[in-house]
Amino acid sequence: MSRLGASLTATMALPLALVAQTDGIRTRNLWNEAFVQQRPPAEQKAASEAKPPREDVKSLGNSFIGMTLWRMRPSGSTDAIRFRGLVHRLDPAGRGDWTPERVTFDKPVRIGDYVRLTIESAKRGYLYVVDRDLYADGTASAATLIFPTKRLRGGDNRVEPGVPIEIPDQADVPAAFVLERTRADQTAVMVMVIVAPQPIASLNIQQESQRLTDARVSRWKRDWGAKVQRLDDPASAGKVYTPAEKMAAANGARPLHAGDPIPLTLFHARGPADAPILVSVPIKLLRSMP
What we know:
- Helix content is 22%, strand content 29%.
- It is α+β, with helices and mostly antiparallel strands.
- The protein has one domain (3-284).
- The strands form two sheets. Strands 1, 2, 3, 4, 8, 9, 12 and 13 form an eight-stranded antiparallel beta sheet that branches.
- A hairpin with a 7-residue loop joins strand 5 and strand 6 (143-147).
- The chain is globular and about 55 Å long.
- The termini are far apart.
């Protein structure tokens, strides 16, 4: 049997789930390369020396949004970044140190846990974040625009490659939000993220969060979210917040570069390069305390 024949036979013998997993890892690696290509180079000199991207990487363009969900856990002795003073259910006096740790969106979060959300766009644009509560009977609460508001960053919602946006911001006290159920049958919080090349003209930024009509949200999802794929990187779950991520999110003076951590979850849109991108992902809630 030829080498090609043997290879095909071996591939056919693999379980379909394993083949899909292998394909997913290969695609995620390709996406990672395309995503970091959009970040600024570590040095100006490096830009002129960098190798041009491969055609398969180049063809993906820059229509990516990266998201990472962080859970606050007690700090270990080797953790570089720590937050103090969270009024956490495991530390009601706020005397301990807490470190953000990556978790997958597929892992339900306990009620009362503190979490943070990081969003990084591979293209320049304007960021909008909408959330709504999901219930066991299939219904949902009204959609609420939680970012931008004039209270956060003065309403400045510009995004650029290598500069993650954190919700809450590290300057907020506390620099995390606690998950609480609004109804006994709530199962998740759906987070919808939009990166638009220009500000959404029909949307006026207000001082606080604002309710959105179902018709408007449905129109956005239909027009901007239909051709989006998602890939996670489970291998990066459990990794902690790094000094590079902290510096990049603080003021963007030192953006993330190719060698820095990549968001745990990547979304890629197939469509016109100048079209807005809309992605949705649920933060699942545990039904009961373990």
